[in-house]
Amino acid sequence: MRKIRKLRMALAVCLTLAVAVLVSGFQAAEARPQYRTQFLKQYEEVKKNNPSGNLTCLVCHDKKAGGDSYDTKKHNNYGTAIKDVIEMNEKKADKIQQALKDVEPKDSAIKGKTFGDLLKEGKLPASKE
User: Fold this and answer.
1) Nearest CA to 37 among 97, 89, 84?
2) CA separation (Å) from 47 to 28, 57, 82?
3) Average pLDDT, stretch 72-99?
4) Whole-structure pTM over 0.90, yes or no?
């Protein structure tokens, strides 16, 4: 009886430690749907030209190698420009809209075109054509 009790106790401690290690390894999701919402409101032409669902976090983030998911730590050139003009996780719609406008005149990855030029053409701002 005593051996079974010690074994159960040891198993419980091991399971608790394993769960603690696993949980500490996961990062909390930091989705910012308010950015996407304001982007879609502000750039109707882009929304019309991209119905396939690629108007996600990938507008500002790079894809992970070998997949369609995005890298939360790595921004594309458009995402970097946005990040430079707005507080992280801004919630106010007017500030997000202003940040979107503020980066329009900045150079895109396409020589001779700004983010605003691409957006007016209905293209994604980080597009490399």
Assistant:
1) 97
2) 29, 14, 19
3) 92
4) no
